[in-house]
Design brief:
Layout (H helix, E strand, L loop, with lengths): L4 E9 L2 E6 L2 E6 L11 E5 L2 E6 L1 H15 L8
Antiparallel strand pairs: 1-2, 1-4, 2-3, 4-5
Length: 77
């Protein structure tokens, strides 16, 4: 399974963006996206910002990721 991580754009330099994903900051390629500004939210996968998303999308993605962290009992498998 491939998982994209929502992140907030902090700054843009050329085709790179410094993003914050739940407190983890990293530089990712922004070459696939046009008109990206600091404060925008993006979906990051494999070091690439692959889509611009809304703040609501970010909340939904965080909720899904939280459910993946929940312990699974033998009866739920």
């Amino acid at each position: 399974m491939c998982v994209g991580i929502p992140a907030k754009v902090l700054s843009i330099t050329n085709n790179s963006a410094l993003v914050d994903a739940s407190g983890a900051r990293r530089t990712v390629s922004a070459a696939l996206l046009d008109h990206l500004d600091p404060g925008d939210y993006v979906m990051v996968h494999a070091g690439l910002a692959i889509a611009k998303i809304t703040d609501d999308d970010t909340d939904e993605a965080a909720a899904v990721l939280d459910t993946l962290d929940e312990p699974q009992g033998a009866d739920t498998l």
